[in-house]
């Protein structure tokens, strides 16, 4: 299990959660942030830092937001638009920087 960023983050990208992550596993797409599910250590530091309450323990995602857990996995394990290889486990978001792309589900998420 891991923490997941849900719908409330779309088009907000406050980034307060990033400062609280001790292992630098929160990555910035275009419309939202994503927690690397294989690197998250479930410390929970990001959850109270989020001003829009968009971060949930995977089992506690609100009804209708289950897709965001799937999208977090897709963000890291499938090639993103404009990339040939999946992002995988790059070992820290700061070394990668803002990616500027999202999964197709998040890209097309209604405003």
From TrEMBL:
PROSITE patterns associated with the record: 4FE4S_FER_1 (PS00198), 4FE4S_FER_2 (PS51379)
Stretches assigned to the 4Fe-4S ferredoxin-type domain: 31-60
SUPFAM superfamilies (UniProt xref): 4Fe-4S ferredoxins (SSF54862)
TM regions (residue ranges): none
Keywords from the named record: 3Fe-4S, 4Fe-4S, Electron transport, Iron, Iron-sulfur, Metal-binding, Repeat, Transport
Needed cofactors: [3Fe-4S] cluster; [4Fe-4S] cluster
Domain of life: Bacteria
InterPro entries (alphabetical): 4Fe4S_Fe-S-bd, 4Fe4S_Fe_S_CS, 7Fe_ferredoxin, FdxA_Actino, RnfB_subfamily
Entry keyword annotation includes Cell wall biogenesis/degradation: no
Cofactor binding annotation: Binds 1 [3Fe-4S] cluster.
A GO molecular-function descriptor: metal ion binding
NCBIfam families according to UniProt: FdxA_Actino
Biological function: Ferredoxins are iron-sulfur proteins that transfer electrons in a wide variety of metabolic reactions.
Name of the protein described by the UniProt record: Ferredoxin
Species the sequence originates in: Nocardia fluminea
Record lineage: Bacteria, Bacillati, Actinomycetota, Actinomycetes, Mycobacteriales
């Amino acid at each position: 299990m891991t923490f997941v960023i849900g719908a409330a983050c779309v088009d907000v990208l406050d980034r307060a959660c990033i400062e609280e992550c001790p292992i630098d596993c929160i990555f910035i797409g275009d419309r939202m942030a994503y927690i690397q599910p294989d690197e998250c250590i479930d410390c929970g530091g990001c959850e109270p830092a989020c001003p829009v309450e968009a971060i949930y323990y995977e089992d506690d995602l609100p009804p209708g937001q289950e897709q965001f857990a799937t999208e977090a996995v897709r963000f890291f394990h499938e090639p993103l638009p404009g990339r040939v290889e999946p992002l995988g486990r790059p070992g820290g978001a700061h070394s990668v920087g803002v990616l500027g792309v999202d999964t197709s589900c998040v890209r097309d998420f209604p405003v």
